[in-house]
Amino acid sequence: MPKRDSHIKSYKLKSGDTRYMFHAYLGKDPISGKMVQITKRKFATYNDAKDAYDQLLAEGIKNYIKPKQKTVDDVYNIWFPAYKETVKESTANKTAINYKVHIKPWFEKDYIDEIDTAKFQAWVNELYKNLVKYKEVINRFGQIYDYASALGYCKKIYNPVHAVIIPRKTKKHRRDVKDNFYTFEQLQDFLTVAKKQNYRSYTYFLLLATTGLRKSEALALKWSDIDWSNKTVSVTKTLALGIDNQLIVQTPKSLTSDRPIPLTENMSNVLKKYRQKQKSLCPIIFHGISNNYVNLSKPDRWLQAIYNADKSLKKITIHGFRHTYATLNKDQQRTDVEAVMGHNSLEMTEHYTHATNDGMERIRDHMNSLNL
User: Fold this and answer.
1) Rounded CA gap, 145 and 154, in Å?
2) Rounded CA gap, 330 and 334, in Å?
3) Among 87, 179, 177, 185, CA closest to 136
């Protein structure tokens, strides 16, 4: 008869029946560091107790100990500090806002290892009805879940993002932007009103329309960014909203956003006149009263003031001036225009050097010919 395992003990019930039990040491809890000892009772036979004991030892502590449960909010607060070090501050701020507005209200107190698939699908359905960039928010939730999985707070084989149906397109009505630009004549009318209304606004919008600058790139400019001899402006920074919506200066949107841009003869002269009118030694071109950068919403107020001054003007958005620049240069070589505008693509990267060296003068000559 084979020798019995000494860990398996027999004991008597009050009825006189025999039952079996064992006491097993599985090791240390990897989270708490405490020793884990398990006692199991009420096995009808020795063999039942022996099988259960052997299985426990074979599976080990990781399969026996359930990780301490974390809510979605708990995991986010662990994940976000690490995540924000891997992206631009403006991107981190956008992620924080998306979490606060779109994820936290639904899942804040839910344990991350108990996410209900039906609830997650309902959340996805609401997102795509009301948000254009809904997939961005869903993907962020997926990152949070994967991080929880890596920390042992939920099963690695299951991610709710992969378990639901994600619609291809948003149901939210997109703004119609196909007409969000000025023709040459419409731009002339706008600039005439702007010049009379406020010279700073006039300078700002003329700069956008004749250079293709993004709103935040123009607001970040300093006088030192202008090369008066070569009549160019260097785009090396952009304004953005950092953590807690604080205004910050950061690197441009992409690799090709850091670029020199040709100024027209008139644009150069307008900037010189504007500088004289400022009567300030502030290094920032479009500065506020306190000689700091103006808020990103300021140009919208400048634009509205111009439209209020003449109700007959066609209304476009701030970004529409960038579209206007592209339209004014629609007959120029595409790579030249993309280089000046700082578009980021494989083709743009391949042609960037050639376009900035040769195409910049072609663009300058064309824009000068418009006499804006």
Assistant:
1) 8
2) 8
3) 87
Q: Which two tokens stand for residue 69?
A: 């449960």
Query: Which tokens sit at 97?
Result: 């806002």
For the chain, the average pLDDT equals: 86
Give residue 351's pLDDT.
40
Question: CA–CA separation, 227 vs 218, rounded Å?
Answer: 15
Q: Name the 3-class secondary structure at 341.
A: helix
What is the pLDDT at residue 77? 96
**Any idea which residue has 């009118």 for tokens?**
277
Query: Amino acid identity of 85?
Result: E
- Which residues does the chain have with pLDDT short of 50? 345-355
Contacts of 67 (CB under 8 A, 6+ apart): 31, 113, 151, 152, 153, 154
Question: What amino acid is encoded at 100 in this protein?
Answer: K
Tokens of 353: 């050097």
Give the gyration radius of the chain's Cα atoms. 32
Identity of the residue numbered 322: R
Token pair 């708990």 in the structure block, residue:
74
Answer yes or no: are the C-beta atoms of 253 and 238 closer than 8 Å: yes
Domains of the chain in sequence order: 8-64 (no CATH), 72-163 (1.10.150.130), 184-370 (1.10.443.10)
221 burial class (0-12, 13-18, 19+ CB within 10 angstroms)?
Answer: buried
Q: What is the pLDDT of residue 164?
A: 86
pLDDT of residue 349: 38
Specify the 3-state DSSP secondary structure of 301. helix
Residue pointed to by tokens 């795509």: 128
CA–CA distance, 261 with 217 (Å, rounded to integer): 12
Instruction: Report how far residue 113's alpha carbon sits from residue 158's, in angstroms, rounded to the nearest whole number.
Output: 9
pLDDT tens for 185-202 read: 999 999 999 999 999 999
Euclidean distance between CA atoms 12 and 160, whole angstroms:
48
DSSP label of 55: H
Cα distances (angstroms) measured from residue 339 to each of 214, 225, 255, 307, 363: 14, 18, 11, 31, 10
**pTM to 2 decimals?**
0.72
The pLDDT, as a whole number, for residue 65 is: 55
| pLDDT tens-digit series, residues 69-90 | 899 999 999 999 999 999 999 9
